[in-house]
From TrEMBL, chains A, B:
Superkingdom as given in the UniProt entry: Bacteria
InterPro entries: DNA-bd_dom_put_sf, MerR-type_HTH_dom, MerR_fam
Name of the featured protein: DNA-binding transcriptional regulator, MerR family
Residue ranges that the Swiss-Prot or TrEMBL entry lists as coiled coil: 84-118
Keyword Hydrolase listed: no
Chain ranges of the HTH merR-type domain: 3-72
Pfam families reported in the protein's UniProt record: MerR_1
SMART domains linked to this entry: HTH_MERR (SM00422)
Keywords assigned: Coiled coil, DNA-binding
Length: 119, 119
DNA sequence: TTTCAACCTGGAGCGCGCTCCAGGTCAAGA
DNA sequence: TCTTGACCTGGAGCGCGCTCCAGGTTGAAA
């Protein structure tokens, strides 16, 4: 509860200060609160968004698509279906990505075994 | 056995023609044969390297590190230990990457379930 | 009151991995 | 012989996602 300073938000989200500012600049984050002196104050809700963005970035979603998702969410409850579909499509891509990664990891292990066999 | 044209090599490796030329330019590929007219001819051995590069790139190895590996291989059999270690270190990073991807994929699925629960 | 680390803005710069382009050459088929 | 598409080289350009910088402000602790 209450608010978090930029550096707290950075620590908790795993994004750098510059990245947080960048995300606000491009409209991925919006309506981040300010103190009277102009400093950012992140809410628990903002932190929740950052956790989601961390998840989406780590799974390879382009920033443009995260912006799209955030826009839809801001537009209201009636976009829930579209948001759902967007996440499902992304999940499918992630599954493909995981299969590829596993396959190539297996190749890599085989290559490593080759070194061990002839060492 | 026999040789492959650039476009054949591209198709078989999944790299673009420009990428093949780029890899040769930076020294990742070396000693690619030429016809009398100056056109590239890829051997089965070259194709084998490309398969390895595909594996390493797909698992996130930076090009600089692939260059290092290729250099070691060119230097001779006495670098086998170092090449082995390099691949093992990479495999560990890939394992970490897979764990993260799985974790974030689980988060994503949970988020998707949330949409299905309240839909 | 002074200090100083954390913060602000706008905008330039960067590292990576290609990708594209201009202007020319080569070679196989009609 | 002519055409045409695949290929050549050197070098510029690009898209992404930050990252850094200059120059200034804020605010809590000493």
């Amino acid at each position: 509860m209450s608010g978090y300073s930029p550096s707290e938000a950075a620590t908790r989200s795993g994004f750098s200060l510059d990245t947080l500012r960048y995300y606000e600049k491009i409209g991925l984050l919006s309506d981040i609160g300010r103190t009277s002196g102009g400093r950012r104050v992140f809410t628990d809700d903002d932190l929740g968004w950052l956790v989601l963005f961390r998840c989406l970035r780590d799974t390879g979603m382009p920033i443009a698509e995260m912006c799209r998702y955030a826009e839809l969410a801001r537009a209201g409850e009636h976009t829930a279906g579209e948001r759902h579909a967007l996440l499902r499509r992304h999940a499918e891509r992630v599954e493909e990505q995981m299969r590829l990664l596993q396959r190539q990891y297996d190749h890599l292990r085989e290559k490593i075994r080759f070194y061990e066999g002839s060492g």
